[in-house]
């Protein structure tokens, strides 16, 4: 692996190249992106593609990527422009892309704005709330995570996040009637750790979950778009957003092994099944319509 920095007026964007050199690869480069997950979250998955040049990066303001724009919010459209700048600088488009969670939202924004950048996009569990039939209630439930975090810190915020992401079905009155999630239920301490800048919990990524995909632009793009969903995610928020997005695109979701982070290895806090996940991703990328 080699580490690099792409300098732009707004960010010093850190990215990595793994596997064969770009000039030596027999396959299209494979770009793996997340949000707020950084490049390191994809190293295990990348190891299952030794025949491809894999490109990973740290989104603007996260990990090693240093912002110069004076902002702290995470925007899919802004991050899409960063990814476009990276593809352009490397001179490798169109590439294939695997995008996870908030990165999948960035990827949908990228295809809408720069349809020539990607040949195939596998967007795994994009958490875009506006596509849901219960969007208002889901947005309320999501906002409560940030409120818990701002009031009591990381452990309270993470407990609320787990409650949100493990709830199955629409967000009904039964969800909101529950008592606040107790960190102790998830093996976490209850004291306030004092942090208020977590990119997942603080509200700085609100533009990710509130993003509305440009469906006409996505349908018009030459990119083959596949929406992925984890087999263990059935009924939960990110499965529902994925299924709704796929329906708007007139496609059927591709079911992947494991859960929302099913490609992560044993060093992850919530490891998945990276080997079968990678096999499914390879199958999808190698299958042409």
TrEMBL record:
Residues 36-132 form the AB hydrolase-1 domain. This is Alpha/beta fold hydrolase. The keyword Hydrolase applies. The keyword Aminoacyl-tRNA synthetase does not apply. It comes from Nocardia terrae. InterPro entries: AB_hydrolase_1 (IPR000073), AB_hydrolase_fold (IPR029058). GO terms for molecular function: hydrolase activity. Pfam families: Abhydrolase_1. Keywords: Hydrolase. Gene3D superfamilies: alpha/beta hydrolase.
């Amino acid at each position: 692996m080699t580490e690099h920095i792409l300098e732009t007026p707004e960010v010093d964007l850190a990215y990595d190249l793994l596997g064969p050199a770009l000039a030596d690869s027999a396959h299209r480069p494979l770009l793996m992106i997340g949000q707020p997950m950084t490049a390191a979250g994809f190293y295990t998955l990348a190891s299952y593609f030794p025949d491809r040049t894999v490109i990973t990066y740290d989104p603007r303001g996260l990990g090693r990527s240093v912002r110069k724009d004076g902002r702290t919010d995470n925007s899919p459209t802004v991050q899409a422009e960063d990814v476009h700048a990276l593809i352009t600088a490397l001179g490798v488009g169109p590439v294939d892309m695997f995008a996870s969670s908030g990165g999948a939202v960035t990827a949908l924004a990228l295809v809408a704005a720069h349809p020539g950048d990607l040949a195939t996009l596998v967007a795994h569990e994009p958490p875009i709330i506006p596509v849901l039939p219960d969007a208002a209630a889901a947005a309320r439930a999501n906002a409560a995570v940030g409120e818990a975090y701002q009031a009591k810190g990381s452990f309270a915020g993470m407990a609320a996040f787990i409650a949100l992401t493990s709830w199955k079905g629409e967000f009904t009155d039964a969800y909101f009637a529950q008592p606040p999630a107790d960190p102790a239920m998830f093996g976490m301490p209850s004291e306030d750790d004092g942090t208020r800048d977590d990119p997942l919990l603080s509200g700085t990524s609100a533009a990710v979950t509130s993003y509305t995909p440009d469906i006409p632009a996505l349908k018009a793009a030459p990119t083959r778009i596949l929406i992925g969903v984890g087999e263990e995610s059935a009924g939960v928020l990110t499965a529902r957003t994925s299924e709704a997005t796929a329906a708007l695109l007139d496609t059927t979701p591709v079911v992947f092994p494991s859960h929302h982070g099913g490609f992560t290895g044993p060093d992850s806090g919530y490891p998945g099944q990276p080997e079968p996940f990678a096999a499914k991703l390879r199958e999808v990328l190698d299958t042409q319509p």
